[in-house]
Amino acid sequence: MRLTGMMKRLRIVLFAAMFLFSGLSARAQGSYSKSFNNIPPTRILFVFDASFSMFGQWQSGRKMDIAKQMLSGFLDSLKGIPNLEVGFRCYGHQFGLEPQRNCQDTKLEVPIGKSNTTIPQIKLKLRDIVPRGTTPIAYTLEQCGGDFPDTRTRNIIILITDGIEECDGDPCAVSLALQSKGIVLKPFVIGVGLGANIQSLGCIGKYFDVSNEANFVSVLNIVVSQALNNTTVQVNLIDQSGRPVETDVEMTFYDETSGAVRYNYMHTINDRGVPDTVILDPISTYHLVVHTIPPVEKHNITITPGRHNVIAVDAPQGFLSLNMPGGNNYMPVQTIIRKSGDMKTLNVQQFGQTTKYITGKYDLEILTLPRIYMSSIDISQSKTTTISIPTAGQALIYKPSEGPAQVLLEEKNKLVWVCNLNEKTLQDNVMLQPGNYRVVFRSNMAHQTIYSIEKKFKVEPGGTVRVMLY
């Protein structure tokens, strides 16, 4: 009666948790539909140890009998939970230890399906299973990879075992491979009276030690609750004074193991003036990329289920404003932004725009004619650094015929190449920074260098100059 009452209470808790999960998940996906059909299912594969060691005595009876009773009663609490699919795999139950161990003794006894259909089938299988053989955990986990219909859902393995690997396999490596391929999230491992052997299973997934039969159902409750529920997370983007005030930037949460994109959120300061709460799956370990310029990253983020988590990321930012007095009515001017001393392009910013950057020093390549280079421009916390350049002028260059022509800048007693003109046109309209220039032209009809034509001209800010090459 005590177990029955516990199961009834557990069922109520799980129903409430699942409804909470459904609502939070829908909101996280941007869907406010009340239909559970819009929520991807959670698929749980119970992997049950039926090796010979489960005949062992454990407090009030044999391990196998207690585990069967507890799991069978617990499964009833999962019936009717929306978007939950359940399956059952067993190992060590088909072949005995003699004449030799069979290290491929594992079988999917109940394929993953709707919980209301599969749970009665699992309970029937549990009733008939007798411990017989060895413990091929690595091989069993490898076979689990093919038990899930697809990888578009939350695929979860719950392994219940009283022993460690006995077939020279590497269950930790197999588990990592399944996670890396995105087949499953980090497995749960429930150790039944393992004692000193618990450390060997911790690398498979999240380990829970059932040291006595009284807390078996409690551990199952915790595991399934974590498997079904999301939890809340607050991301604090920290400025140089340690304040969580940076915001309005997109954040991507990747699965640390598989590299798959799990969530995308636009960071927001809510109406209470604090970073807003987001919803994450507590099972995964995350790699967070905050898409500032340049991006900032944080690896190996773990989420504690059942409480509000805070992730702090250093992201101090300032502003770069590009300004051209008087504007430019002819064409937009773009600027390549790089970290100081690094040739990798971080951003291309247009004049007239103000953009946020992580604090530090930057090099600018302004795509005017001629180009303007600025180095070690300092971006400070919450301040705006303004870069101004003169307004360009317009040079209208007329040629008597088709032919090659180049524009050169007079700079410190040297001539510096600026641009080539279109060989096929008779008129070119070139936007140039203020300065003294020369244009050198030769007609395609002239076949001697001596027939080159050179003209000097000056460009004033915002002005127009006509250059006649005849």
What topology emerges from the helices and strands here?
Blueprint: H1 2-28, E1 42-49, E2 57-58, E3 61-62, H2 63-76, E4 84-91, E5 106-114, H3 115-128, H4 137-144, E6 154-161, H5 171-180, E7 188-192, E8 206-210, H6 216-228, E9 231-238, E10 250-255, E11 261-266, E12 277-280, E13 285-290, E14 296-302, E15 309-314, E16 317-323, E17 334-339, E18 345-350, E19 354-358, E20 360-366, E21 372-379, E22 384-388, E23 393-398, E24 405-411, E25 414-420, E26 427-432, E27 435-441, E28 453-459, E29 464-468
Parallel strand pairs: 1-4, 1-6, 6-7, 7-8, 9-15, 16-22, 23-29
Antiparallel strand pairs: 2-3, 4-5, 9-12, 10-11, 10-13, 13-14, 16-19, 17-18, 17-20, 20-21, 23-26, 24-25, 24-27, 27-28
Structure description:
- This protein is α/β, with parallel strands linked by helices and 470 residues long.
- The chain has 4 domains: 2-228, von Willebrand factor, type A domain (Rossmann fold); 231-314, Sandwich (Immunoglobulin-like), CATH 2.60.40; 317-388, Sandwich (Immunoglobulin-like), CATH 2.60.40; 393-468, Sandwich (Immunoglobulin-like).
- 18% of the residues lie in helices and 38% in strands.
- It has 6 helices and 29 strands.
- It has helices at residues 2-28, 63-76, 115-128, 137-144, 171-180, 216-228; strands at residues 42-49, 57-58, 61-62, 84-91, 106-114, 154-161, 188-192, 206-210, 231-238, 250-255, 261-266, 277-280, 285-290, 296-302, 309-314, 317-323, 334-339, 345-350, 354-358, 360-366, 372-379, 384-388, 393-398, 405-411, 414-420, 427-432, 435-441, 453-459, 464-468.
- It has a 6-stranded mixed β-sheet, sandwiched between helices.
- Strand 20 and strand 21 form a beta hairpin.
- The radius of gyration is 34 Å and the shape is elongated.
- It starts with a helix and ends with a strand.
